[in-house]
Structure prediction request, 351 residues.
Amino acid sequence: MAGNKPSKKKLAFPISEQLDQYLKRYGRSATFPIQYEDMTRYIASTPLLDSKGNDLFWETVYYSEYDQEMINEALCVIYSLLKTDGDREVIDHLSVSRIDFCIFGNTNPFRVRIINKLNDNYDHFYIKKTDASRVYGLELEELLSPNSLSYLVHKDTLIEEHIAGIPGDDFIRNHIKIDTFNQIRVAKEFIKFNERCFIQLLGDMRAYNYIVDITPDIEGSQYRIRAIDFDQQSYEGRKQFYLPQYFKENNGILKLGFDNLTYDSVKQYQLEERSLIARRAKISRDRLTKLLRCMIADNISSDEKVERLRADLAKHHHNKAFLQCKNMGEIVLLNIKLVVQKEFTQSILEL
Prediction:
């Protein structure tokens, strides 16, 4: 598994003018009263621990009295932009309960806990540095997956909603001992998740980079695996990096497939998900085309990584057209075209 580690810390790429115009056209752009850098002016912090005293790699941060008042007011405005398109009436009912800073990972996000004073219900959202890779990942997830995402961009700041669910590593550690019927459902969902990541080339989906959303059903439960980290959207050069099945952190879920699924059922689930992705791509054709045009005109990886990935995919798909791709945008476009045109010739999931 060492070969699936990123070659080095992921670089952040600026938002191009073309991508900025796309974000404005589709309601992903807004004007924020504060930026990410304003959040870094905290004067003290304390480690955030779980109920058992384990370090969560987040720190609760504190500001001066003057900054705290200004920041809290601005954060309530941002939350209203994210949730109610800026309706100021909701702001009077909101307050900031806590602000945490993540000391782990590439983006070093701030997580804001918002409380509704009318009913004490709380919600979270994240403030991050803008990265074009992440924005492309968020948009492709919106257009090609069954999941809808709410986020906004302004200058160097990215605001994202919280995606509720059990972190994948927590699920594998504490929630995977379920009956056979539900094991099959989890295994099936992982296969579909694996397909979605590979087709849109979303990388680094180890257990801590996705959540498991569990919905009680008439019989058993329904499971949805959702990515929560989009930093590694079409950046790395190794094919395996875009297949969650290859990460040892996911072995607990992968074992459910080994134990409960046949080759034919795995193939069926793969084909089902490809058909759904093809349908979503056709439904969102105009918007997807504009997004991919932005990607093709953009620089979101190195030449070395592009060369490695196009060679890997040309071999995987038995399709030399990948060797003609000049950048990651063209590679993603061709990968999606194969689904839409039903030209898949690669082998089934390598179990």
About this structure: The chain has two domains: 31-129, 166-340. Residues 166-340 form one domain. The mean pLDDT is 91. DSSP finds eleven helices and ten strands in the chain.
